[in-house]
Design brief:
The longest helix has 21 residues. A seven-stranded mixed sheet has the order 6-5-4-3-2-1-7. Strands 14-13-12-15-16 form a five-stranded antiparallel sheet. About 30% of the residues lie in helices and about 25% in strands. By secondary structure, the chain is α+β, with helices and mostly antiparallel strands. It is built from twelve helices and 16 strands. The chain has three domains: about 130 residues, Rossmann fold (3-Layer(aba) Sandwich); about 150 residues, 2-Layer Sandwich (D-amino Acid Aminotransferase, Chain A, domain 1); about 70 residues, ATP-grasp fold, A domain (Dna Ligase, domain 1). A hairpin with a 7-residue loop joins strand 4 and strand 5.
Length: about 400
């Protein structure tokens, strides 16, 4: 019997359109002999929809939830239900609203980029619903999304990161000159300014002097109230490595070298250079990267270490900067749900996208089984001797006196 796979994507995020491209790509490669595919789209207002029409990229140009073949749904959070419910209002004069099951999902493939999907919020909902899902869990997703926390975590783990400091919007608004002076004193130019909780290079820019720093901070604070200012390198080599797996089964992909002219890939470089229809897979790159074996081994081992430290599962991509002058490697960030699911890196290793999807589903089911083998039935005698009484909290004193 085929399993039903829910491909969930979109959400209230600036990266929603990138997620749509990644999800439609994935649905074209899923093994239809093994799985039934149910698209689950969350629009910019947070409403959930399903229907085969969501597999067509043209449905989103623009998206309208009232189109024929699209059904508005909401998840049943009863443990292990996996049901997507819809409200049928009926058409008769005396008809009543009825809740019906639109689909029942066995495993969710999470194809979210950015807030409200890649940051642990959706993962928390799926944990509560007790349904298997393919992405990294709540804690790892939250750390991976927030660049400030991520950087502090990597530094605390003894991993190499570039110097950086962060500021709040309120601090910048109250004294922008003080912020600039701190950047100049502690880091110096050039710097890259990044919203703490955005990906796909949205809101990221380079500053080479105080005026451009002000402009970069203004831009970044449009997208987030917390911003990271990070030391820039002189024409570094960008290198990316994907990791897939779960628990002790961890594999690193070949390493890619994205091609760009100024040491920084913006949103247009990543998604618009080839029309955007292929997402990150369309980016110009050298694969595998023409680097020394020792550097390749260093990056792959570091990537596996990061994957384990954050207790990741499924497929992630970790981005690095290599400084030619110092010959040092620095971690830029981890993408716990990378653009295009980094399938092109695994194809270079001889793993077709359909096989990668199979692996992701397997990891999700293994993680779910492990979670459900934990003991949640532990009980104690603590409630036997507690009586809060009629006046609530004051009853705790009576409970103490009764001992």
């Amino acid at each position: 019997m085929k399993k039903t796979i829910g491909v969930i994507f979109g959400s209230r995020s600036c990266e929603r359109e990138v997620a749509i491209i990644s999800a439609v790509q994935l649905m074209r490669h899923i093994d239809t002999e093994k799985y039934n595919t149910v698209p689950v789209y969350i629009d910019e207002t947070g409403n959930w929809y399903t229907g085969e029409k969501l597999m067509d990229i043209n449905t989103y140009k623009p998206f309208r939830g009232d189109q024929k073949g699209i059904v508005k749904v909401f998840p049943d959070l009863s443990s292990a239900s996996g049901a997507l419910l819809t409200l049928n209002r009926g058409t008769g004069l005396f008809s009543r609203e009825k809740i019906e099951i639109a689909a029942r999902i066995d495993v969710y493939i999470v194809v979210m980029h950015g807030l409200n999907g890649e940051d642990g919020t959706l993962q928390g909902l799926l944990e509560l619903a007790n349904v298997p899902y393919t992405s990294t869990g709540v804690a790892g997703s939250a750390l991976g999304m927030d660049k400030i926390m991520m950087k502090q975590f990597f530094r605390g783990a003894g991993l190499p990161v570039l110097p950086g400091i962060w500021f709040s919007r309120s601090a910048f608004r109250s004294d922008r000159d003080s912020v600039a002076k701190q950047v100049e004193k502690e880091i110096g130019y050039p710097v890259f300014v990044k919203p703490a909780n955005l990906g796909s290079s949205i809101g990221v820019s380079r500053a080479d002097d105080r005026e451009s720093l002000y402009d970069s901070l203004e831009l970044a604070f449009e997208y987030d109230r917390r911003v990271l200012v990070e030391k820039g390198l002189d024409k570094p080599v960008e290198l990316n490595c994907s990791v897939k797996g779960y628990d002790d089964d961890v594999q690193a992909s070949p390493i890619e070298m994205p091609l760009n002219s100024d040491g920084f890939l913006d949103f247009g470089d990543k998604y618009l250079a080839s029309g955007g229809s292929k997402g990150m897979a369309s980016l110009h790159r050298v694969l595998p990267a023409p680097i020394e074996d020792s550097l390749r081994d260093e990056i792959q081992e570091m990537s596996r270490t990061i994957f384990r430290l954050l207790d990741c599962k499924g497929v992630v991509r970790i981005d690095y900067m290599f400084d030619r002058e110092s010959e040092k490697t620095y971690i830029t960030e981890i993408n716990t749900i990378p653009g295009s699911l980094a399938f092109y890196l695994w194809e270079n290793a001889g793993i077709p996208y359909s096989s990668l999807i199979n692996d992701m589903i397997e990891y999700a089911e293994r993680a779910h089984a492990d979670k459900n083998t934990a003991n949640y039935a532990y009980t104690s005698d603590i409630l036997k001797n507690v009586s809060l009484g009629a006046k609530g909290a004051k009853g705790s004193k009576a409970a103490k006196l009764s001992k």
